[in-house]
Write a structure and sequence with these properties.
The chain is mainly beta and 217 residues long.
């Protein structure tokens, strides 16, 4: 067990990086209302894998995110990560489980990223948030919110192409799949105006279960 009480910020710009544990027995206790792992700058060729994150202690704001990229996530693989807000820590009863905030925020720009066999249980903010870009593949796993009254399961923020959601269960969110089309500031020239459509979005054997709605606007 690792008890984390302040954000851990990493900048791996320009380098390949491997970050992981030995499976879900490697448990990080996320105890503060802030981002947990903050990847700064343009993150490329990251392998993030085999780790459990348990939200405990302080209640998390919806914007407090377990895995947060502030600029970009490119050519990277995220696999076998568990983020849970409902896992009791028997050895430390004073660290009560609390709902997680956000799960994976893949940055303003998300290009050629795979999220494979990852699980989120009891998150109030969002499951996966995807920046503009292309070729994002989410395969397997389960993203579960707290109630159908809060949060977003899979969030396309605009200008997304080639997004694949395959054999993944998305449940208990206010919005199961949100497809925004507004460009982020600074990318209007790339998308040809103030708005960018999302294209080539594929749902294959995916389940949207007990969600308030699926919405595109």
């Amino acid at each position: 067990l690792w008890l984390i009480s302040a954000t851990i910020t990493m900048n791996t710009t320009g380098s390949s990086f491997d970050f992981g544990g030995t499976g879900w027995s490697s448990i990080v206790l996320w105890s503060m209302d802030a981002n947990l792992f903050h990847w700064a700058g343009d993150t490329t060729h990251l392998t993030l894998h085999d780790l459990a994150i348990a939200s405990v202690g302080s209640p998390k704001s919806p914007s407090s995110t377990a895995i947060y990229f502030d600029k970009s996530c490119q050519y990277s693989i995220i696999s076998n990560i568990l983020i849970t807000g409902s896992q009791p820590i028997v050895q430390h009863p004073e660290l009560k489980p609390t709902a997680a905030g956000g799960g994976f925020d893949l940055g303003t720009y998300t290009q050629t990223v795979t999220v494979d066999d990852c699980y989120i249980w009891s998150a109030a903010g969002f499951g996966v948030k995807i920046g503009y870009g292309a070729e994002v593949r989410i395969g397997g796993g389960r993203f579960e919110g707290v109630t159908p009254e809060t949060g977003i399961g899979v969030w396309l923020t605009g200008g997304n192409g080639g997004v694949h959601l395959t054999s993944t269960d998305v449940g208990l969110w206010k919005i199961g799949l949100l497809s925004n089309q507004t460009c982020r500031p600074g990318v209007e020239a790339w998308c040809g105006g103030n708005f960018a459509s999302n294209r080539e979005v594929f749902l294959t054997h995916a389940t949207l279960d007990s969600c308030g709605t699926v919405r595109a606007h």
